[in-house]
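Q: Convert this sequence to structure tokens.
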Amino acid sequence: MVNRLANSTSPYLLQHATNPVDWWPWCDEAFAEAVRRDVPVLLSIGYAACHWCHVMAHESFENADIAAVMNANFVNIKVDREERPDVDAIYMEATQAVTGHGGWPMTCFLTPTGEPFHCGTYYPPSARHGLPGFPELLIAVRQAWAHRGDQVRQAAARIVGQLTERAAPLTESAVDDRVLAAAVDALAAEFDQKHAGFGGAPKFPPSMLLEFLLRHHERTGSQAALSMAQRTGEAMARGGIYDQLAGGFARYCVDAAWVVPHFEKMLYDNALLLRAYTHLARLTGSVTARRVAEQTATFLLDGLGTAQGGFAASLDADAEGQEGASYVWTPSQLIDVLGADDGQWAAELLAVSPAGTFEHGTSVLQLPAEPDDAPRWERVRAALLAARAARPQPARDDKVVTEWNGMAITTLAEAGGVLDRPEWIAAAAAAAELILGTHLVNGRLRRSSRDGVVGQAAGVLADHAWLAEGLLALHQVSGENRWLHAALSLLERAREHFADPDHPGAWFDTAGDAEALFRRPTNPTDTVIPAGASALASALVTASALTGSESYREAAQAAVGRAGMVPAKAPQAAGHWLSTAEALAHGPVQVAVIGAAGDAARTALEARAHWAAPGGAVVLAGEPGADHPMLAGRDLVAGAPAAYVCRGFLCERPVSSPDELQAQLQGRIAGSAG
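A:
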């Protein structure tokens, strides 16, 4: 038997399509059914790579007796948080307000009109660890609804009222040099001097903070900012959070030392970390950072690439119900694969011990130091990868999310330009073609697709912002104007449908004509991914530098100012805002390269520009007389290709040698303003 989830484009919902629970997808009909039956709604939110979502599904949603209680007393709605980030956002706020914490699986009980009155996360099938058993909770909620329905509705109204009050736009606050420097000081106070990173366990990869610290160092020369970024990048690259065999980062570590990850791999983490490691390699010359950038890009293409040209959302934490089963090793397993000599060498190299670092004496592979025998390591790594491929493999959530694909397009294009990897740029272009060809329906952007079939969920602000940013990155590395035109069209749609007309600089996460929820979502904080508003502000900065549009620049400045209290008071929740503010403070930097296509001198200048330009800069090459705002009025110098560097409203003298260009970009030549 299958339920109403069987036709979904979400792999997570499809995982529940054969449950005995009479699941509904999120839809008006489900709430109408709750009104007709006069029963509460049980809303369960999760995602495909979530370990504890799988646990609760197995324990409760696959249990016929528990399912019978759910079906008799509730209308049950299952939501993929990645497909409906708007629904997830407002009920996560409610869960955090009610319980003081949040996470997935998220379990909320709602009135038939959608207001939450009781919220939680994982519930076991019987009481343990201070948590009530899920069946007992179901009965208690149903009895409260039946016998104290008015009180339940009043409680729901209070929760909604409190959340609505909290959602008021922030007071405007400038993000100037003082705030940016203070953010570095605040991060230094939170820096883990022993293990690197920020705070304690669990520890998440701080991709956006790394990008901010690198941009701040490039603009100001701050060694404190560079040191924190270098040490954190090195620690993660050496630790178990990084897949030492195939590349790619896990979502977070359960410990403070980067040893034991929660094994799921998310597209958004790896896309953002590709950017950070590319810039680490560019700035420091680190062999490790370059290796990690290259392997992470390879993981994106080989591990998450889809047949249609996009990028899948994630790889699961589990394989055949066991967390991390694909990834962990014992010393004897290494010897079985490699033989005694190589096996013992690999165990020492990869910190695999008899005691283990994970469960049941197994260890997560680490690489505390670069191998002293590189050819031997490559031979060992290939053999271990082949052996691992024969193990049970984690499931893949192969839906294509617009926002996260926009991140991948952005960073693959950027990294391809910096590290001279045209195949990465080609992969970014293929993903952009898929999104523009499939996710744009009647002029409006959709959130996701699967197997080339677009889903029904409307695109949110972050979808528009990141796709625009990715298209602008493609425009820079390819010179193709079609990417620019498509990006500007998306930005105009975003300004039309998502701006808060009553509070300049504030943005809603859903369009004005989107489905009405109990509160229109808006969140100015960067979490594990950038806020929709900070992503849009960054895209507007890039667009302003490429087009010369004062309107875009003013909109970006207004957005940064509206969110300014976040970087000022909580920089750990403002990494992307801080990066965007750094780009604005730096000019942003513009590099225009003029020369005939195919000219070796132009190619050399363009390559050096991509390598040496600071994070947040824009780089564009074209021929003399090109019809482009950034290239217009610029020509060859003494008949030779030339590069023009500008910061804001000041420009350096044009130069014709890559070394002079790099010197200008690194601030070693005080060129004349023009």
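The chain has four domains: 11-166, 177-316+397-585, 327-391, 589-665.
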